Amino acid sequence: MVEEARSSAPVLLEARRIKKSFNRVEVLHGVDFTLHAGEIHGLVGQNGAGKSTLMKIINGAYIKDEGTILVKGQETELGSPAIASKLGIAMVYQEFSLVPSMTVLQNLFLAREPLIGPFIDERTARKKAEEIFNELEVDINLDQELVRLSVGSRQIVEIVKALSLDASILILDEPTASLSSIEIEVLFKVIRRLKKAGVGIVFVSHHLNEVVEICDRVTVIRDGRVALSSNVSGLAIQDIITAMIGKKLDDSGHVFYNSIKRHHPLLQVRNLSAKGLLHDISFDLYPGEVLGIAGVLGSGRTELLKALYGILPLSAGDVRMQGEILRIRDPKEAIKAGIVMVPEDRRKNGLIAGDSIRNNVLLPIWDRLRRLLFIREDEGRAIAKSYMEDLKIRANSIDQYVEQLSGGNQQKVVFAKSLAANPRILLLDDPTVGVDIATKRDIALIIREIARSGNGVILVSSDMDEIASLCDRVLVLHDGTIMQELERTETVSFSEEMLMGAIQQKL
After folding, report:
1. In this structure, which of 26, 236, 432, 450 has its CB flanked by the most CB atoms within 10 Å?
2. What is the number of domains present in the chain?
């Protein structure tokens, strides 16, 4: 049921009865959405529900089929991002649009530098940038190369870039997906200052606890329709979940204590080092175990997975699988040894964008499907369909191109591709970033099932609740070194607070 939420502040944006189809499949079925000045409006829904499509229409990246859009009371046609920008609409995507090798100042005004005659007016650009950073009470060196900034600082630079265009409507797409808890706190302070300044903010997120914390209103889209629109005050997270999936979500995905027999390690890592990144790391991984790796960004957690997968060269140490030493120099050798990785940046490193779901899922097992010079097409299609159903990938068919899928469904295709390789050891680098709560539970169950089959899982996650609920043991990393090991027992379980305390103790 949709509850009308009201505000006395001026309406900055109003979308009425918006419809949009792709390949004759209707994605939005008459969606309404309103944003007021000085409001943070949460937009949530399962992957493929239509929220990203709606935002891209408002940003001018897509053109609506039907409906009306009013900006500050004036009906308008948002035919391109450039038109939207002139009307004060800016969108900060989950994938940054910044150039790492350029400075903060150069990034802020790239391709639109203020000029004095034929020359760039750096003084004017610097003055405007400093004014915005001062208003937000954020201290970032304008002359610092972007590559040297933390992910959280880059996120703020993206926001400042949008504000430098005099944006009054700011759309944030999964802004906290790759941030640490400390960086999220800083970002929320910036968002609240923007709210106080009268900017209207659309906060698109799968993290419902953050939506409840930061947002004034929330709109839930389910299957291309508005399932709920309400003030956040008085709403419980369970109410939002029910609106998202159309039913009450049970707790069948809750993970309890799992006894691990620590007799014969599946994987042994001894004195592993990678120059300047990892230092003298040793641990064992046992059959049936989910081993968590916790730490802030830059602690070496992703680098550890890359070292085990052959992406990052080792400077010392060795790795053994069931007692046999492994010489892994690239991912192909890792897959052959039974080690498969789901990378952090799945769209960049995990997908062939111009190809189908089927071909992406089957990519690591083509040799297995080959009979002489021919591919066993029926078997391959059956495998792809099976993973599409198991992971609930929302698509027209296994022949649909992955670039046409929502971000969360693209992530699920990468996950399916990794599982198709039948790994003995699965390396997961933030596997549920950008995934809705129902799919997150499904993936958690799949991870535990992989472990119960006698395989090993090493899980890196920025979500401490995910680590706490899924893992049997946790290694806490700091500056590329294991600082602490925590183990779940029949009487001791992990909590988000415990893990955050262990991480922050090393800062």
Report:
1. 432
2. 2
For residue range 365-416, list pLDDT tens digits in order. Answer: 888 888 767 778 889 999 999 999 988 888 889 999 998 887 778 888 988 9
Q: Tell me which residue has tokens 């929502």.
A: 406
Distance separating alpha carbons of residues 71 and 82, to the nearest angstrom: 15
Q: Do residue 332 and residue 208 come from a single domain?
A: no
**Residue 258 reports pLDDT greater than 70:** no
Residue that finishes a domain, picked among 213, 245, 277: 245
CA separation for the pair 422, 450 (Å, rounded): 9
Which phi and psi (to 5°) does residue 367 adopt?
A: -60, -35
Question: What is the rounded average pLDDT for all residues in the chain?
Answer: 88
Range of the domain at 136: 11-245
Closest to 394 in 3D by CA, of 29, 4, 25: 25
**Helix and strand totals (H; E) in the chain:** 18, 24
Whether the full predicted model's pTM is greater than 0.85, yes or no, is: no
Q: What whole-number distance in Å separates Cα of residue 61 and Cα of residue 54?
A: 10
Whether 340 and 298 have beta carbons less than 8 Å apart is answered as no
Is residue 268 domain-resident?
yes
**Residues 40 and 131 occupy one common structural domain:** yes
φ, ψ at 203 (rounded to 5°): -110, 100
